[in-house]
Amino acid sequence: MTVFSGSFWIATAERAVRTAAQTLLAALGLTAADVLEADWGQSLALAGSAALLAVLTAISAIGTGAGPGLTETVRECQ
Q1: Nearest to 23 by CA among 39, 56, 55, 45
Q2: What is the pTM for the complete model shown?
């Protein structure tokens, strides 16, 4: 799998969206539980940063497996 393949970017986008959603829910949940004080803007910035890190991790792991992660396998797009 290369950075130029469609299946790489589909899997990477899915990972980035999943990571952003998990981070946003965690930030909002911790705010609701009075563990963290973050407004919507800060929570979205945190989620966006996590998504960016997920993309950078996928790019750095190219060539180590059959997917954008170290242990993931992804079917090729047809």
Answers
A1: 45
A2: 0.77
Structural domain boundaries, residue 34: 17-78
Alpha carbons within 13 angstroms on the beta-carbon side of residue 50 total: 18
Total domain count for the chain? 1
Q: Is 37 part of any domain?
A: yes
For the stretch 53-76, pLDDT in tens is 999 998 888 876 666 665 566 666
Per the domain annotation, does 39 fall within a domain? yes
**Residue range 4-51, pLDDT digits in tens:** 778 888 889 999 999 999 999 999 999 999 898 989 999 999 999 999
- Phi–psi pair at 16, nearest 5 degrees: -65, -45
Closest CA to 23 of 15, 13, 33, 12: 15
> Is residue 46 situated within a structural domain?
yes
